[in-house]
C-alpha cells in the first residue's frame, strides 16, 4: 500500500505523526546545541581545558541511556503519549537552564538530567512510530529522522549570532603563528548563549501545547493492523533457529552502537575539531561547517524518502556506507590540512550518515518482526555509542585533534563489517522461511 493510501485511511494517526515530527525537531535542537556552543559553555563554568568541558557530551549520553532503559519499562505500563509528553516537558524546562551553570559539576549534572528525558523521547518516539505504522513505517521513519536532523541543522544557525568571538594572541616567534585563547579574557557575564537556549526552550513549549491539544482531542492509541502477528508469520518465525535470532540482535546492536558513535562524534565535536585542527577555524566558521554537515544530513534525507521506494532499505544503507567511506578517504589524509577537503568531506559525510538510522528498521522488518523490546534494545545501544565514542575523542581534543578523524574511519570500517554479516543473516532467514514449508509438504506426501 502506498504512503498516500496509508495516510488517507489513517488520517488522525497521521496528525499524531506530524506532532511527533515537531517533537523530534525539538529533540534535534537539544541534541546539537551543546556541541555548537561547547567553547562558550567552557567560559560559563571557567573550565581550563576543552577536554573537561567536552565531558558534558558523554554525561548527557549516560542520561540518554538511562532514559532509553526507562522507556523500555514505562511503555508496558503507560500510554506512549503520556511518556512522551512528560519527557518533553522535562527536556524543555532543563535545556533553558544549561547556560546558567557556573560549575563543572553543575554542568555535568544538568546535561545528565537532560539526557534522561531526551532518551525517552528518542526511544519512545521511534517505538511509537513503529506502533502507529507497523510495516508501513520506512517512509515515516525517514521523515521522523529528517525532522530530527532539521533541528540539528537549525541549531548552529540559531547559535552563531550569539557566540563570542575567539580572542587571538599573535606570537612573536619566528614561526609567526597565531594562538587562540579560548575564552580566557571573557567572563560568564559576557555570554550571549542564554538567548539561544531560551529560543529553543520557547519553541519546545509551543510544541508541547500542540501535543497536549491533539492528545485531548483523541487519546486512542491502537497499533497499526500490520503489527498484529498472523498465524502464518508465527509458524515462519518459529522455523528460524534461536541462535540466528540472537546473531541478528547482536550484530544489529553492534552496528547501531558503532554508527551512533560516528554520528554523535561528528555532530557534536566537528566545530571543536575545526577550531583546534591545523586549519584553525574561528567559532563562527566552525558553526557554519557544523551547519553544512547537518544541512546535507537533513536534506539528503528528503531525497532518501523517495529513494527508499525505488531501491529498498538494504540498498539505501549500502549506498550510505559507500558515501561515508568516500568522505573518510578525503578527510583522514587531507581534512586537517586542506580546507576544501574538510568542507567537501563533511558534506559527503552528512549525506552518507543521513538515512542509515531510519533505514535500519525498514531493513529489519523485511525478515524479522521488530517488536518494542527489540527496538528499545537497539536504541539503548545507540545511547552507549553516543556515550563511549565522544568520550574518547573529547579526552584527546586538546592534544590530538586528529583522533576525531581516526575514530570516524574506525567506525566506518566496523559498520561495513557488521552490515555485511546482517545481509548474510537476512538471506539465511528468508531462505529458511520460504523453503521450510515446501520441504514439509514434500515429506508428508512421501
TrEMBL record:
It comes from the Eukaryota. GO terms for molecular function: transmembrane transporter activity. This is Sodium-dependent glucose transporter 1-like protein. Coiled coil: none annotated. It comes from Dinothrombium tinctorium. InterPro entries: MFS, MFS_trans_sf. The chain crosses the membrane at residues 12-33, 82-100, 112-133, 195-217, 246-266, 286-308, 315-334, 340-364, 376-397, 403-425. Keywords: Membrane, Sugar transport, Transmembrane, Transmembrane helix, Transport.
Amino acid at each position: 500500500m502506498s504512503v498516500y493510501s496509508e495516510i488517507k485511511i489513517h488520517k488522525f494517526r497521521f496528525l499524531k505523526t506530524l506532532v511527533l515530527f515537531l517533537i523530534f525537531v525539538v529533540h534535534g535542537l537539544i541534541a546539537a546545541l551543546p556541541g555548537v556552543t561547547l567553547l562558550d559553555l567552557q567560559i560559563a563554568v571557567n573550565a581550563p581545558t576543552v577536554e573537561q568541558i567536552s565531558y558534558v557530551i558523554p554525561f548527557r549520553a549516560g542520561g540518554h541511556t538511562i532514559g532509553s532503559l526507562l522507556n523500555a519499562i514505562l511503555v508496558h505500563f503507560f500510554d506512549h503519549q503520556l511518556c512522551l509528553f512528560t519527557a518533553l516537558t522535562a527536556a524543555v524546562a532543563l535545556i533553558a537552564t544549561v547556560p546558567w551553570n557556573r560549575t563543572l559539576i553543575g554542568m555535568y549534572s544538568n546535561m545528565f538530567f537532560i539526557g534522561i528525558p531526551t532518551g525517552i523521547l528518542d526511544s519512545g518516539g521511534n517505538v511509537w512510530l513503529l506502533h502507529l505504522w507497523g510495516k508501513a513505517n520506512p517512509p515515516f521513519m525517514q521523515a521522523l529522522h529528517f525532522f530530527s536532523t532539521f533541528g540539528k541543522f537549525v541549531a548552529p544557525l540559531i547559535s552563531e549570532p550569539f557566540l563570542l568571538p575567539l580572542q587571538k594572541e599573535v606570537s612573536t616567534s619566528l614561526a609567526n603563528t597565531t594562538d587562540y585563547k579560548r575564552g580566557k579574557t571573557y567572563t560568564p557575564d559576557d555570554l550571549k548563549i542564554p538567548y539561544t537556549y531560551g529560543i529553543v526552550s520557547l519553541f519546545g513549549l509551543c510544541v508541547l501545547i500542540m501535543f497536549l491539544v491533539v492528545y485531548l482531542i483523541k487519546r486512542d492509541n491502537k497499533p497499526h493492523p500490520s503489527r498484529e502477528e498472523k498465524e502464518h508469520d508465527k509458524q515462519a518465525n518459529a522455523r528460524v533457529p534461536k541462535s540466528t535470532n540472537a546473531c541478528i540482535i547482536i550484530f544489529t546492536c553492534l552496528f547501531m552502537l558503532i554508527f551512533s558513535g560516528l554520528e554523535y562524534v561528528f555532530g557534536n565535536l566537528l566545530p571543536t575539531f575545526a577550531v583546534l585542527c591545523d586549519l584553525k577555524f574561528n567559532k563562527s566558521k566552525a558553526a557554519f561547517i557544523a551547519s553544512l554537515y547537518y544541512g546535507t544530513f537533513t536534506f539528503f534525507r528528503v531525497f532518501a524518502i523517495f529513494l527508499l521506494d525505488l531501491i529498498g532499505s538494504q540498498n539505501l544503507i549500502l549506498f550510505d556506507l559507500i558515501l561515508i567511506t568516500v568522505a573518510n578517504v578525503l578527510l583522514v589524509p587531507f581534512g586537517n590540512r586542506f580546507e576544501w577537503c574538510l568542507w567537501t568531506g563533511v558534506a559527503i559525510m552528512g549525506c552518507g550518515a543521513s538515512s542509515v538510522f531510519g533505514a535500519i528498521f525498514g531493513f529489519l522488518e523485511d525478515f524479522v518482526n521488530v517488536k518494542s523490546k527489540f527496538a528499545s534494545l537497539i536504541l539503548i545501544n545507540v545511547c552507549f555509542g553516543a556515550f563511549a565514542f565522544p568520550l574518547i575523542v573529547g579526552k584527546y581534543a586538546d592534544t590530538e585533534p586528529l583522533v576525531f578523524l581516526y575514530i570516524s574511519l574506525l567506525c566506518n570500517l566496523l559498520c561495513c563489517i557488521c552490515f555485511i554479516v546482517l545481509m548474510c543473516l537476512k538471506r539465511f532467514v528468508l531462505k529458511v522461511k520460504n523453503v521450510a514449508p515446501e520441504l514439509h509438504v514434500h515429506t508428508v506426501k512421501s
